[in-house]
DNA sequence: CTGACTTTGTGCATCGGTTCACAAAGGGAT
DNA sequence: ATCCCTTTGTGAACCGATGCACAAAGTCAG
């Protein structure tokens, strides 16, 4: 907060934030195996990045390593967790209990490490009342009330594309400011609200692009016009 | 179109490639609504990006717009599809038919627009033989044979983390060079193989980071979307 | 045909992120 | 304590992506 040079500067680069969960996963794995300290070289290769990048990333959080030794695994787990806000308990709601919603409710990363599925909603009376991952599916009518009652602060949208914007508007109106969107639509939200999207078909299309390029070889005779 | 001054440069920036599917989706939507031409401004806002970026992205594919008018929707759909390799038919295999695998098999983006789920595999005898999205689930033992027989070139991994690397090795040995990985592990592959990963819990953790900052920070950084 | 108007395509400045490479810092041995 | 070895943390160069702002290219009306 004072000098702009080294302290725990609050301005952590977005690219770094996106990699912290990666480091965290590798560290958890190492902790389970009883590894006490790890060098930037080893941690980087476990996380699939290069070691200079890892060191620069970690340097944004503070100076938690020991020169000549490496990083203490437990300590680093704690520091990264704290930075990401995983030392608190986040109540997550999933809206849209189709195949995807069900998958998410059972997904390991959702039920541990700071997150807890606190509510699930669907519009289909056939699905409402089902128990999934030990939790009851509620009707979408109960959305606002349940969000407030359970202190939900992050909502996962797994609805059909056509329903996503409407549900989004409702959860925003209910005070939610973080949304993870799986529906293939561009959501419109006030800029106080954070939306991250995951679009599976986009990833597939990027793969197809590269695959096509490989198949065509170094000489690409493409233009048919 | 083959002018040496502005050739269809084969070096399309990665960031551009990642956005093309976004433009494509917006264009498909417009085509359905009978919109014949669209300006960069309108298309950009439908895709959720800024218009200068959109124009620069499209300029990497060629000069497909008309000044003073905009872009022909159908024509642009075709050009982007061709660039992404979606004018051909990609046979995709899904390995791991748990909740997530099932969701993917039924996912709209997987069964249209150039992609076709050609095979599904699981290790659980309970699941093998089930029909999902009109297709039979085969035993993992049949992996290599079925991949070759059906001409599968892209494999989607939706297995538990512990099984992912082994399955990955097998599909790579069978000649697959594009993998979409949903398992939370860092896969090791020869560098001729393309891996893209989707980790749902990472996205959630990034949201938590920003949410925490909103809630707690004495200084609120403006965050852009 | 001319002139007003619209919208593309791009040169350029800028910004954020990556990588290199090394001085600084610490541990351990003697 | 001193020296050697290892590994961090970071300055600086580099690289790709972004966004501005405008000339060029086209449409359309009269």
UniProtKB/TrEMBL annotation, chains A, B:
Domain CoA-binding: 85-186
Gene3D superfamilies: NAD(P)-binding Rossmann-like Domain, Winged helix-like DNA-binding domain superfamily/Winged helix DNA-binding domain
UniProt DNA-binding residue ranges: 22-61
Annotated localization: Cytoplasm
Residues annotated for NAD(+) binding in this entry: 96-101
Chief localisation class: cytoplasm
Keywords assigned: Cytoplasm, DNA-binding, NAD, Repressor, Transcription, Transcription regulation
Superkingdom as given in the UniProt entry: Bacteria
InterPro entries on file: CoA-bd, NAD(P)-bd_dom_sf, Rex_actinobacterial-type, Rex_DNA-bd_C_dom, Tscrpt_rep_Rex, WH-like_DNA-bd_sf, WH_DNA-bd_sf
Family, as annotated: Belongs to the transcriptional regulatory Rex family.
Task performed by this protein: Modulates transcription in response to changes in cellular NADH/NAD(+) redox state.
Quaternary data: Homodimer.
Protein name (Swiss-Prot/TrEMBL): Redox-sensing transcriptional repressor Rex
Record organism: Nonomuraea ferruginea
Top-level taxonomy: Bacteria, Bacillati, Actinomycetota, Actinomycetes, Streptosporangiales
Chain's gene name: rex
């Amino acid at each position: 907060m004072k000098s702009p040079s080294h302290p725990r500067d609050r301005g952590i680069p977005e690219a770094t934030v996106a990699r912290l969960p990666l480091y965290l996963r590798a560290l958890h794995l190492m902790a389970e195996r009883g590894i006490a300290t790890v060098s930037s070289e080893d941690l980087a290769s476990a996380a699939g990045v290069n070691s200079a990048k890892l060191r620069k990333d970690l340097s944004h959080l503070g100076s938690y390593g020991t020169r000549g030794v490496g990083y203490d695994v437990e300590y680093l787990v704690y520091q990264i967790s704290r930075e990401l806000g995983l030392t608190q308990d986040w109540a997550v709601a999933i809206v849209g209990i189709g195949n995807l919603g069900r998958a998410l409710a059972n997904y390991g990363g959702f039920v541990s490490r700071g997150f807890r599925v606190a509510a699930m909603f669907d519009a289909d009376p056939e699905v409402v009342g089902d128990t999934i991952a030990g939790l009851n599916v509620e009707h979408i009518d109960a959305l606002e009330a349940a969000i407030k009652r359970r202190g939900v602060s992050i909502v996962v949208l797994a609805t059909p594309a056509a329903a996503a914007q409407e549900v989004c508007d409702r959860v925003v109106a209910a005070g939610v400011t973080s949304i993870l969107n799986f529906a293939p639509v561009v959501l419109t939200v006030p800029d106080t609200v954070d939306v991250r999207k995951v679009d599976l078909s986009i990833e597939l299309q990027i793969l197809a692009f590269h695959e096509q390029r490989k198949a065509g070889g170094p000489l690409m005779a493409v233009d048919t016009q």
